[in-house]
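TL;DR need structure tokens for one chain.
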Amino acid sequence: SGHVKPGVCDALVCQVDMLASFAALTGRALAESDGPDSFNILPTLLGAKTDPFGREYLVTQSNEPATVALRKGSWKYVKKAPRAGRKVGGELYNLANDIGEVRNLADIEPALLAEMAAKLAQIKNDGRSRP
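>> reply
TL;DR here they are.
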């Protein structure tokens, strides 16, 4: 006891990360096929100042309606079909100041929108988010 100090952290983590984190805690290595989306966030859970951010990206999916999204820090990209005349479709929100996802910043941040859309496509193509 006494290893983890009470506090609050804004790190991006997910319950799927518990597999890789508990494996690291117990000194076990994950097989290549185990936990393809699980990242070791043990340093974050233990409050390490060297890793206060957790994972870099997180893919989420809701079923009603079927929507796939990508989180990167406070940013959230929601995959949508492109509008006429646009190469990249989707919505982009900064959850740091818009937790209700009211202000779509896709037109204001087109480079970030394209980056996050490309990352989501790469993860889908790879079939996993963990390298």
